[in-house]
Amino acid sequence: MISIQGLNQFYGESHTLWDIDMQIPEGQCTVLMGRNGVGKTTLLQCIMGHQKVASGSIQLNPADKDLVKTSVEQRPRLGIGYVPQGRQIFPLLTVEENLQIGLPVLPRGQRRIPDYIFELFPVLADMMHRRGGDLSGGQQQQLAIGRALVVDPKLLILDEPTEGIQPNVVQEIGDIIRKLNREMGLTVLLVEQKLPFARKVGDRFCILDRGRKVAEGDMAGLDDTLIKQYLTV
Amino acid sequence: MRQLRSLGLLTLILLSSLTSLQAADSDPVLAEFEALLSSSAAPDRARAISLLADSMHPDTLSLLAELLEGQLYTFRGDSHLYRVPRHEEGRAAERLLDGETLTIERVRDFRRVAVNNAQRTQIRRVMALTGLNAESSAIRLQAVRQLMRDADSATIALIQDAYPTEENNRVRELMAVALAIHTLADSDNEVLQRDAIDTLSESLEPRARNSLAQFAQSTENPALQELSQRALTQIDHKVQFYKGLETLYFGISLGSVLVLAAIGLTITFGVMGVINMAHGELIMIGAYTTFVIQQLMPDHIGLSIFVAIPAAFVVSGLVGIAIERGVIRFLYGRPLETLLATFGISLVLQQAVRSIFSPLNRTVETPGWMSGMLEFNPVFAITLNRLYIILFCFLVFFALLLILKRTALGLQVRAVSQNRAMARAMGVRSERVDMLTFGLGSGVAGIAGVALSQITNVGPNLGQSYIIDSFMVVVFGGVGNLWGTLVAGMTLGIATKLVEPWTGAVLAKILVLVFIIFFIQKKPRGLFPQRGRAAED
Amino acid sequence: DTIKVGVLHSLSGTMAISETTLKDTMLMLIEEQNAKGGLLGKQLEAVVVDPASDWPLFAERARELLERDQVAAIFGTWTSVSRKSVLPVVEELNGLLFYPVQYEGEESSRNVIYTGAAPNQQAIPAVDYLMNELGIERWVLAGTDYVYPRTTNRILEAYLKQMGVAEDDIMINYTPFGHSDWQTIVSDIRRFGSAGKKTAVVSTINGDANVPFYRELGAQGVSAEDIPVIAFSVGEEELSGIDTAPLVGHLAAWNYFMSVDTEENDAFIEKWHDFIGDTNRVTNDPMEAHYIGFNLWVEAVNKAGTTDTEAVQEAIIGVTVPNLTGSYAALMPNHHITKPVLIGEIQADGQFEVVWQTPSTVVGDAWSDYLEGSKDIISDWRKPLLCGNYNVVTKTCSGQSYE
Amino acid sequence: MSQPSLLSEIKDKHHVFSFMQSQASPVLNVDKQILLYLEGLSVSFDGFKAINDLNLYIRDGELRCIIGPNGAGKTTMMDIITGKTKPDTGSAWFGQTINLLELDEPAIAQAGIGRKFQKPTVFESLSVYDNLVLAMPDERLVFSLLFARLKGEQRDRIDEVMTLIGLQDHSAMRAGSLSHGQKQWLEIGMLLMQKPRLLLVDEPVAGMTHQEMDRTAELLVSLSGSHSVVVVEHDMDFVRQLAGKERTVTVLHQGSVLAEGSMDQVQNNQKVIEVYLGESQ
Amino acid sequence: MLLWNLIKQDRGGQILLALLALAIIIVPILNGLPSDHPLHIPTYMVAVMGKYLTLALLALSVDLVWGYLGILTLGHGAFFALGGYVMGMYLMRQIGDRGVYGHPELPDFMVFLNWDSLPWYWQGLDQFWFAAILIVLVPGLLAFIFGALAFRSRVSGVYLSIITQALTFALMLAFFRNEMGFGGNNGLTDFKDLLGFNLQARETRVGLFIASAIALALGYLLCRSVTQSRLGKVCVAVRDAESRSRFMGYRVENVKLWVFTLSAMIAGVAGALYVPQVGIINPNEFSPLNSIEIVVWVAVGGRATLYGAVAGAIFINYAKTWFTTELPDVWLFALGAIFILVTVLMPKGIVGLLRRKEGNA
Ligand SMILES: Nc1ncnc2c1ncn2[C@@H]1O[C@H](COP(=O)(O)OP(=O)(O)OP(=O)(O)O)[C@@H](O)[C@H]1O
Ligand SMILES: Nc1ncnc2c1ncn2[C@@H]1O[C@H](COP(=O)(O)OP(=O)(O)OP(=O)(O)O)[C@@H](O)[C@H]1O
Ligand SMILES: NC(N)=O
Ligand SMILES: [Mg+2]
Ligand SMILES: [Mg+2]
């Protein structure tokens, strides 16, 4: 689905991502892992176009489009949904409006919020007319996921989506990601710190360390040595 | 059957329908009229008017009208009088005596026959005499009023004659008042005087009150004195009431001007967060657009406003879009710096207008349908231009409300201003949204300029005089809240007008500012604050 | 080698509206003089600067003109405050300032030539006209809240009371600069005027506030026949920005109107139109004042044979030049000039029709005879008195004085 | 927040304006071994009851975990304790002497209550080091701030904390450039610098790896005893680690306490499983 | 030593102070050269330069509250003008009986408005020491009262900006009124001497220039010592996350109040030095647009750098002087263009060009 080649990124003078090569195979769930501050969020932001890329390319498969040269607002139209770290809810829009924001990228006639979002997160239905910023942290996280699903994505990018969410909902999120992934062929790129969750939903993993990709493979291959080496402090 | 006492008048009216039949070549009246009118001494010109009025000349009314309108000119070449409908190079001038026409070569060769106030009053009086029998009740009313100005027994007699057959109530009432004033002053008959006081006590005409006051002073009859005193208090109460009503209207009208001036800013500043110091200049551009439109269609001033509104919207909107594309888009995320750049833009726009249109104020005419007053009674009338501006203000307000609430643009612009990056990630074309929104706010400012051009200067300083008030209104109402802007503008308008009679305009303005300062202490986020967790820090 | 002439008028900011025209007038006059061969055999050179309607900047620019450019004279300033700001500078550096605008008086400087009207050359005759010719008995004195209207109204108030007008028959009202909402005030005026006595408004409303004021008068149907308004700051140029149709018959008092029918005036207007390239442009009173001031200066320089300030100051008193209305302007020892006073009525085309004028010219009075503090003060810049504020009672000269 | 009217304050000649009031609060008194009393608290937003008759007592030196579904009111409870939100009814006391509802945010902080926010908030344009400097509790008065200098032991303390939170290499970096997890750590560091008597920690391990979680747990446990610590977290492993066998865990639901007890008790509470934990936990 | 610590790591400040010291020495010398000497600085230029320095001091005071505390004040001109008015009143009193009406006590405008005695608030201002106290006290007190009200009610952001604007606007209208006893629109002018020195004299002008330079240097050091102290850090913390600093125990309103008051006092001193050099003070100094312009100087120079504010004020005012003389017809285009270009192309202002490398302020 996405193939990243030779990606380098800088914050001002500091070189944050180094020569990243990475594949996100279609229909699979890839989990991106690594310690705090290694560049996971930065990599996702590069894919989303929020960060300028110094060199390298990010090919989106079906259309063979180079995302580096595509504007941010094209991404939902290309079928990319995004759940950022820190929720990034529109605080003064109501829950309903937060969800509606993505509707115009859908073809006319399909512009309504799918019901399964409310089945997944019933709390959103209860709080339809409350300002997004008033929701509790976990409710906001649920809203953020719901909002990304509204655009009917082919590729879903999630940055620590379970942060601050109550355990039973975390399970459900895991289930739904798996379901979307397995049953509907949704491709998923997930950043996740919690190993059990990662193991549960992921098909593949990919580890970053200090801005470099250091390991990649099927989830089964994520062994203790790797964990010790790259995921513990 | 109306009795016409004045034979002259009858003839005049009869003959005036036959004007064109008269051969004009050797008309002695006209010749004398011309001679007297050409004199530079005002008394001569006054005599010319009386001459014409007494002459029963068929053209009397039209000539006097032309004189009043300033369409009679003396040509330096032959010292004759000419009719000049348009005093411009290349236009035609028609000699009064024989109808010969000339083409104007040098404007200064034709000097207008000027009339002064005394002569104007004289002409209007002549016209009023015929006006009493006019078809239109408005003209009859006007005529009675004119004749009341300094009524003598002859005019009173005319009114007396017309009174019984007058069908229109308002005219009748006014006539009754005129007659009562006369009675009160001239008659010694107590019964008649009582009736007159009665009539006058019902009237709000200033003349009625004055004559009552005078009568109460001068009469020796204590019963009548008391009666007239009572009548006076009755009138004064009513006057007081209408004065209150008037103040309220003034407040709303000032409020609507403030709202109009501020409402574009509610969008660019309130919703988008751009501190747009050039907002005033966008208003100014709207006003200048009105001026240009009127220049382009000088013969259709009445229509010009309807052309000017969309035109101003488009022109100011395009300028706004140019500002947004050229400057502001580089500054998103640095909201305070938009102040700096737009301050620069406002300087440039002001100077640009000075260069293009000169530093002088430009004339924007008030179309006929906007001038005049809606008169409820002699002490309470509302001016039409203000009334239309109030209506227009509400129209703009609700249109905007609809756009922001019912279209995708409204939602998207709020999303973009709250979190640009995320809005883009959700597919919002933020650049387009910014451009359109800024264009919308600017266009609305332009529309406000059309309205303001009807009540104030159209000059390079126009914008500066509204920018401070506009920011006050937006902030007082609560940034980003359209309703807040409406309520704030109206509140400040009414407050100013309530205080003004007590303190004078200067102190009123100071007090309103102090009020704003203290009000913000009580409600640190304006009348309609953004609420909730997110708004708190 | 040229003689430099400073032109100190705001070309930007709030006053540009009025002052830009005066800058152009000066350029025209200088160009014309140069065409005639210049002055003392030298060409004149205009030094134009922009004080930007910023009062301290006026002083700074004036200092530059005098110190750096060594100008022989400065023509400029409009508002009283800008003149007050420049005054210490021209006195210190001994320059010569020609001030072209009607003002409140109460000033006479050795270094300033006042070519605009003092209150007795405008306000008092105007009131006389209203009282005697129109029979006005009730008075509204409306002005912008600053020194010129305040002073003028104080003088008028004193004068009216002296003429037997009762306190109740005078209404005084002040508004801020640029006041734009006149509804209440116009309505008050209407009410004040409906008390049965003939009422008039004497307006010292300044600049930008006039347009909305007159518009409101028109909207509320206050006609000149009911309540005439006589203005001291509204001339042809101000009217050119107003729809005059509803204002026909309202009045203004000036020392010049564009409509005055004299050959000098026709020639001046023609020159102006040629210079500015627009036959629709109007002329006005302060332009005439500059015309007079410039000619006075030219005469005085010719008489003195030098542009040296001292010599010109001495030479200029008593110099007489024609004005544009058929009489003469003579510079009096108090540095004010003689002027005819004209009352005009507004016509539909934005011009004034002269309805009355003083039989002869009036001498400008620097120190009003109607104010307590100033009635004993006179000004005479001839030797031996050489004093702008000589108190005839205490027989002293205070303020600016030269040994 | 209703403030007494300005006029009445001015008229009251005994009124002491806040800017003139001495900033010290009454002395903390924990004779009864209870540090925090929350009784009968309720608060509603536009009719929605976020906190509903909540009662909670925290012992001096206790480490208390609070769990509960999203929107149960945990953060709102902390908002009330720290003065951000005023409750509609109820009382909140810090020890026996300090009525929290009468104090504003800075006074509460100075009385000894520190907080880590759910969403990490640091001073973005200050360096990591300066963030820690400002968190030190010593100087709060304007004039003493003007002349404040770092003492040797303060420097040592900062270095110590800096190492503890793993940001020693980033001390001069603008806090705004830190990654999400680094900000979390910095906020914990700031809390440590502040040395409050009561620590309110809202979701400290969100976004941390498992090992970091262990370290955080150790840290919090070591703080308890000398400090009281209230921790809100959704990560059950972490909570289990903190609560151990004997510490109390409180479950909030719909603004009031649903269950309270040891981790085992809570974990097996059917209602808690239903609304919060889910079946498989 | 303490001083050196303050500017040790402050290249901009070092340069600024060095330049000021240089100016104090060299300007009197150059001014003393014969007037045809190519290096001669005419006295009027000295006065103009002195004016720039006072405006720079004003900009400094705005940068302190806007740059470091995040209060976008759109009314700082009010404090400047108040300081100026106090100085103007002192100078008026110095005229004594040399006014045009020769009144021993009353200024001319009072005589001619028929005032018969000096209003109470004019009393004592014939004493320089008293005027000197009021120059800082009056602006300081107004700022303190205004700040105490506003900060305590937690008015912030644009709401605060707009009420500062309302404050200066209201003061402007009030000072326009003749009844206020400050000379109305004409303001105070025609000053004669200061502390017995003739204001027109060359030496006095040079002296005022030196005084302005010293005031600017001291003002800079004062502001620098505030921003470098921990209080300065707290200011930045408040600017970035006001409520977070409250939860850390800082009384945000007090921090704001004192810094705001200090800044108003500095502005008052600037105004007091400005008035004798330009020779007039008038209500226009209260005009809201003037205050906005000050903010613009700071932004052009570079916000939150102090010396940037100084550079911006001098640069823009010099440009204004130059433009209004050399390009009187189109100068607003040029000035407007500078504002736009600086904002768009130089987000850190003109000093941003000089210190690309430095990470944070
Ligand atoms: N805006 C920025 N400017 C400068 N440096 C930044 C910025 N944002 C992040 N960094 C730095 O880049 C590095 C990578 O940050 P990133 O946010 O991608 O980390 P992460 O892997 O997502 O960490 P976490 O697990 O904590 O979310 C970090 O060291 C961080 O300090
Ligand atoms: N200002 C407000 N306006 C409206 N509703 C609010 C407001 N503040 C909080 N709420 C609501 O109150 C409830 C409690 O919120 P709170 O943030 O305390 O939950 P929480 O227990 O911290 O949840 P989480 O675990 O998701 O962080 C939520 O349903 C939230 O939507
Ligand atoms: N002198 C005037 N009109 O200010
Ligand atoms: Mg991250
Ligand atoms: Mg929470």
Descriptive overview:
The complex is a heteropentamer of chains A (233), B (537), C (403), D (281) and E (361). By secondary structure, chain A is an alpha/beta fold. Chain A is 30% helix and 26% strand. Chain A has a single domain (2-231), classed as 3-Layer(aba) Sandwich (Rossmann fold), CATH 3.40.50.300. Chain A has a six-stranded mixed β-sheet with strand order 6-7-8-3-9-10, sandwiched between helices. Chain A has a four-stranded antiparallel β-sheet with strand order 2-1-4-5, with helices on one face. Chain A is globular and about 45 Å long. Chain B contains 22 helices and seven strands. The longest helix of chain B is centred in the middle third of the chain and has 50 residues, at 222-271. In chain B, strands 4-3-2-1-5 form a five-stranded antiparallel β-sheet. In chain B, helix 6 runs parallel beside helix 8 (169-186). Chain B has helices at 7-16, 28-38, 42-55, 60-69, 117-131, 137-148, 153-162, 169-186, 190-201, 206-218, 222-271, 279-296, 301-326, 335-357, 384-406, 408-418, 420-425, 430-452, 462-477, 482-503, 505-522, 533-536, and strands at residues 72-75, 81-83, 92-95, 101-103, 110-112, 373-377, 380-383. Chain B folds into three domains: 24-117, no CATH class; 149-219, no CATH class; 246-532, Orthogonal Bundle (ABC transporter involved in vitamin B12 uptake, BtuC), CATH 1.10.3470. Chain D has eleven helices and ten strands. Chain D has helices spanning 6-11, 74-81, 105-111, 128-135, 142-147, 152-164, 180-194, 210-223, 236-243, 263-268, 270-277, and strands at 34-45, 48-59, 63-67, 89-94, 98-99, 113-116, 198-202, 228-232, 249-253, 256-261. In chain D, the strands form two sheets. Chain D has a six-stranded mixed β-sheet with strand order 6-7-8-3-9-10, sandwiched between helices. Chain D has a four-stranded antiparallel β-sheet with strand order 2-1-4-5, with helices on one face. In chain D, helix 4 (128-135) runs parallel beside helix 7 and helix 6 (152-164) runs antiparallel to helix 7. Chain D is globular, with a radius of gyration of 20 Å. The mean pLDDT of chain D is 85. Chains in contact: A-B, A-D, B-C, B-D, B-E, C-E, D-E. At the B-E interface, helix 14, helix 19 and helix 21 of B face helix 6, helix 7, helix 10, helix 12 and helix 14 of E. One adenosine-5'-triphosphate sits between chains D (45-46, 48, 50, 68, 70-76, 118) and A (130, 134-139, 164).
